[in-house]
Amino acid sequence: MTDTSPRPGDFAVVRMDGRTGRLIRIGQFLNGDGFSDYEHAFVLVGDGLLVEAQPGGAALSPLSSYDGHPVLWSSGRIPLTDDQRAAITTAARSYLGTPYSFADYLALGAARLRLPAGPLLRRYVASTKHMICSQLVDQCYQDAGVHLFDDHRWPGYVTPADLANLINRRTGG
Question: What is the 3-state secondary structure (H, E, C) of the chain?
Fold first, then answer.
């Protein structure tokens, strides 16, 4: 039987309440993700701490701040070696302070709508100089050599709903 207890290097998606959660739900809907139950993502780095992209920049936060929220974990669903877990947590900590970018949601939507922006838009979304929460998770995994998506999407072209759908596909849920 596979252990599904969260371990360092695992990621999770969580439902966000309030105005921010509603705005992200709308953004994900406009991006073609439908109305997902998950609007935020983070990486567990150990000792009850996680790294998450926030409006003030990527931050180290206590896992307990999500007690009582519905959380969907990648644990036991995305196979990782101990070396990959270490590389993911190292990458996550290296992005502390990286600015958040609400504009990335607009860029993701423009790409989904196939608006003519081409390479400029692709470079903007792929930049690690600013990231939304799901981009941070995906980038940490890429830095560790783990590719979560095999659908030829642009680097950084990932929403919390994409991560939730990935986890659910891996569980048949």
Answer: CCCCCCCCCCEEEECCCHHHHHHHHHHHHHCCCCCCCCCEEEEEEECCEEEECCCCCCEEEEHHHHCCCCEEECCCCCCCCHHHHHHHHHHHHHCCCCCCCCHHHHHHHHHHCCCCCHHHHHHHHHCCCCCCHHHHHHHHHHHCCCCCCCCCCCCCCCCHHHHHHHHHHHHCC
